[in-house]
């Protein structure tokens, strides 16, 4: 009988503890960690000033009118001493609790953002993008590509990054992508072409500006490789256009390269300078780099736009053949009234 009573007391004790545990969970959920935001659409909170208190940092969220229990949030935050908030981007989602939100911004449990770097972009365009996305100053954005990494190391892609990144942190993130892309296989192909990874990117930037036809990229790159191999200047029109617009940024759209342009004294003008230009013309899509890595130097060393196949080029091995192709192309431009 005594054992039976002891067993019942034990059962009641266990049941009581279980009930207290359940009540504690519900109490925590509906008091300390009660829902603070119940709108389906997430709220993106950006905290730029590291000297702000939690309550100050939450001002944009409070102003939105979507806080479910602002008084409870303020009381709990006061009990915690209104700590400093950490710089960063925080996504506030439906059902997030009071304590969860306060701990998130106090300890810097930041949510990543997406940074999309496109191909065919010049360095200033990327710098402008960084000032818009991260709030960098113009000098800080310039430092990413001019000080902390090279422009030729930028691989166009969509990156998950943190808004709190300093310029050198962002450069490290982008450099890691460059190192992953340039694996031993790609580096081996570049070496067999007699080029470094950076030189391949420069060559690819010229090839992608020269043709938009992916199937023609290896052939275009092969032509420039052949010129490099025999020590002949590249005489690539895209480099002339780049140099001319760099010198005369308000020149407008250039559809025809003139002798005055090819005579321009500029480091990127491959009509006047030997070898590759000192850097890529723009960012280069990974698919373009891979296409260029398949190029082989053959005997074709001349090309011009093919009027019979818009978007493609007519290739030649001899200068006489090239002159015939060029005459057809220039006649086509003249018929259309294109002078520049």
Describe this structure in words.
The protein contains 15 helices and 8 strands. With 340 residues, it is mainly alpha-helical. The protein folds into 3 domains: 79 residues, no CATH class; 69 residues; 136 residues, no CATH class. The strands form 4 sheets. It has a two-stranded antiparallel ribbon. Strands 2-3 form a two-stranded antiparallel ribbon. Helix 6 crosses helix 7 and helix 10 packs across helix 11. The longest helix is centred in the N-terminal third of the chain and has 31 residues.
Task: Summarize the structure in short.
The protein is mainly alpha-helical. 51% of the residues lie in helices and 10% in strands. The protein has three domains: 29-107, no CATH class; 113-181; 200-335, no CATH class.
Q: What is the number of helices?
A: 15
Question: How much strand?
Answer: 5-15%
* Number of structural units classed as domains: 3
- In spatial order, strands of the major sheet run 1-4
- Please state the average pLDDT score: 89
Q: Structural class of the helices, strands and pairings?
A: mainly alpha
